[in-house]
Amino acid sequence: MNILLIGSGGREHALAWRLAKSPLCTRLFTAPGNPGTARHGTNRPDLMVTDHAAVAAFCAAESIGLVVVGPEAPLVAGLVDDLKAAGIRAFGPTRDAARLEGSKGFTKDLCAACGIPTAAFARFAALDPALAYVRQQGAPIVVKADGLAAGKGVTVAETLDQAEDALAALFEEPGAEVVVEACLFGEEASFFALCDGTRAIPLGTAQDHKRVFDGDRGPNTGGMGAYSPARVVTPEIEARVMAEIIMPTLAGMRARGCPFTGILYAGLMLTADGPKLIEYNTRFGDPEAQVLMPRLSSDLVPALLSACEGDLSGVTLEFDAHRAALTVVMAAAGYPGAVVRGSVIRGIDEAEGDGLFVFQAGTRAEGGQLLADGGRVLAVTALGDSVTDAKARAYAAVARIDWPEGFCRRDIGFRAVAREAGDRET
User: Fold this and answer.
1) How far apart (Å, rounded) are the C-alpha atoms in residues 117 and 296?
2) What does the longest C-alpha to C-alpha distance in the chain come to?
């Protein structure tokens, strides 16, 4: 069948690579795509994904059998709804179901109603009551924009001044709403499940690194690197996540008349009291997809089709249990603030090889050269026999990329590496 992938980031490059491997995939189109996705199919930068009628017309003209929506914005905008209304099979949640990512307040209310473990919270639509609340609660405290914020709408305020500044900045936007949460303590992990509205099957774990600098310092970003699997998510914890978080969420969404089909990405805090939900994303993560896809040994396409049909019974997804994956994000200088675009990137071919991948995100091709064209630009990924091995291989690949204007964290995977070192010592 012909497949249309929506998006242009590193996640989409990783998905394009995996989808193109499927025997079921005859042709792969990516809209708008990037120079990386062009290696695995045909980019369609002329197709405006915000024009849902145009996307539907393209699907009809090209006999598209499956649309895979990568980013969150088209999901929240209802692209899946409009494609389904046109009789086109599309993987991802509907507009109403995508509220799990599109509105943190919606998700927190669902958690409260369904008994899903999460941080204590309050919602606000005005600055003054929000300020009064944080002053009453004290710091540390977490301030979140209610809507989509590209991974940068969260402030973990260590002082009241930081919380007040974050609130003031968010309420500068007309109509802003915020969620203020108690600060959870523990280790974070990402848990992925493939859902068909009723059922869910685990789709792997990862650990992201949100802060821009080594040692988890600096502002939050969209993610500076990740590794998989996150062995801190033990089989016992996985069972609790499925029973206490994922399945109650699916039941709650069905009860609200908006069953969830797609990828449910649970950001978790593993506290002393057990796993608690920090927030949901409703799609493959970025950069988590860049470590999940290389470890996946099953054909992804049949699983996505089964989810679209509302029947995951009998579907299994296999991952290489003996190999880890680690990705290092190379970003343009200045990220997550203003960045300079147009610097030349060389050495990608030299960096790739057996179990080594360079997934492109913020790039463009011009005049026979590859140019940086965004904040997070490359995701250099390696498979290894352990996280320690994958880290060494990934950073060796980073060293082969000639891009003086780029930078990366040097400590991706540090928690897992320390844990593996402790295991060796014992």
Assistant:
1) 29
2) 61
Best CA proximity match to 408, nearest among 326, 330, 291, 351: 330
What is the amino acid identity at position 256?
Answer: R
The backbone torsions φ and ψ at residue 416, rounded to the nearest 5 degrees and listed phi first, read: -65, -40
Q: Tell me the β-bridge partners of 187.
A: 270
Q: b/e string for 213-234 if b means 16 or more Cβ within 10 A?
A: eeeeeeebbbbbbbbbbbbbbe
Give the torsion through C-alpha atoms of 327, 329, 330, 333, to 10 deg. Answer: -160
Tokens 């649309």 appear where? 67
- Is 0.85 topped by the overall pTM? yes
30 vs 67, 77, 147, 265, CA distance in Å? 10, 19, 26, 23
Give the span between the Cα atoms of 18 and 304, in whole angstroms: 12
> Going residue by residue through the chain (426 aa), what tens digit of pLDDT does each one get?
999 999 999 999 999 999 999 999 999 999 999 999 999 999 999 999 999 999 999 999 999 999 999 999 999 999 999 999 999 999 999 999 999 999 999 999 999 999 999 999 999 999 999 999 999 999 999 999 988 765 557 888 999 999 999 999 999 888 899 999 999 999 999 999 999 999 999 999 999 999 999 999 998 898 999 999 999 999 999 999 999 999 999 999 999 999 999 999 999 999 999 999 999 999 999 999 999 999 999 999 999 999 999 999 989 999 988 899 999 999 999 999 999 999 999 999 999 999 999 999 999 999 999 999 999 999 999 999 999 999 999 999 999 999 999 999 999 999 999 999 987 776
Q: Please, what sign has the CA dihedral across residues 399, 404, 408, 410?
A: positive
